[in-house]
Amino acid sequence: xxxxxxxxxxxxxxxxxxxxxxxxxxxxxxxxxxxxxxxxxxxxxxxxxxxxxxxxxxxxxxxxxxxxxxxxxxxxxxxxxxxxxxxxxxxxxxxxxxxxxxxxxxxxxxxxxxxxxxxxxxxxxxxxxxxxxxxxxxxxxxxxxxxxxxxxxxxxxxxxxxxxxxxxxxxxxxxxxxxxxxxxxxxxxxxxxxxxxxxxxxxxxxxxxxxxxxxxxxxxxxxxxxxxxxxxxxxxxxxxxxxxxxxxxxxxxxxxxxxxxxxxxxxxxxxxxxxxxxxxxxxxxxxxxxxxxxxxxxxxxxxxxxxxxxxxxxxxxxxxxxxxxxxxxxxxxxxxxxxxxxxxxxxx
Length: 348
Fold this sequence. Notes:
This protein has helices at residues 14-22, 60-68, 135-138, 140-149, 152-160, 167-179, 183-196, 203-215, 217-220, 227-240, 247-250, 269-284, 304-321, 324-334, 340-347; strands at residues 128-130, 162-164. The longest helix has 18 residues, at 304-321. It has 348 residues and is mainly α.
């Protein structure tokens, strides 16, 4: 049966249809087409067809890659294919970027492994104001503990947390406590006064403190009869330790300095005895080397061999004199309760 004219276009081969579609054809609105359009094609509109690789088109492969990137996690960019993550700072079994060890260590508070102890330490110090009336409650227990351990650093740290309203009165108070104890405590107090020079107190504080101490000698000697002489020894030791200047003693004998206000009166017998004792000790020791051991080396300041010799001397003197009270007195004066086992060992 012969094909009709309407079915002629369908009898064309597939190759001819493809060639006809690939050839660009412009159809204007006023021009009627020579042939009927296929089913499904729009009519009455002008359009221009281009090849799939036209100037305004995107290559099919690249378009598919860009579209599929959001659907995959392992696809790497074409420009950075094969490079490590974050320039070597990320991923497993990596040490980080070169030079990261030179940067400051960052602590993230939101990290699950965050420990508050790893953060920076913030020291908050509450300063206590201490007046002269508070010395017995605040300073005296600290000094008595210092006589047991001899740690000047601990005393300095405790005093740094206090706001002293009168530092010269502190110097006078410390010396008064030392005068009530033995020579070992006085040696410790002299060392404490020396160490306080570089931390808390200054030379004017010491000068005014010793002036206050000399003015109160009349009251101090009621409990300590030899307080005047011992005060002069403290002054001489302070000069040897460079806590105060030698000018402190010379001003008492200078006619121009005698008229200074708030200066102790040298006409007082106790003041004169104390100042004269300090002047004699400083004059006798020109190099001031012997004054560094003016209180004697006793107790924990002696070496073990010297302590053993002291114990042997006490035992030998006990055998010779048969005076038990004198041996007990010498043993207490030595002030080495931690070394009494040596006495028992030597006696046996």
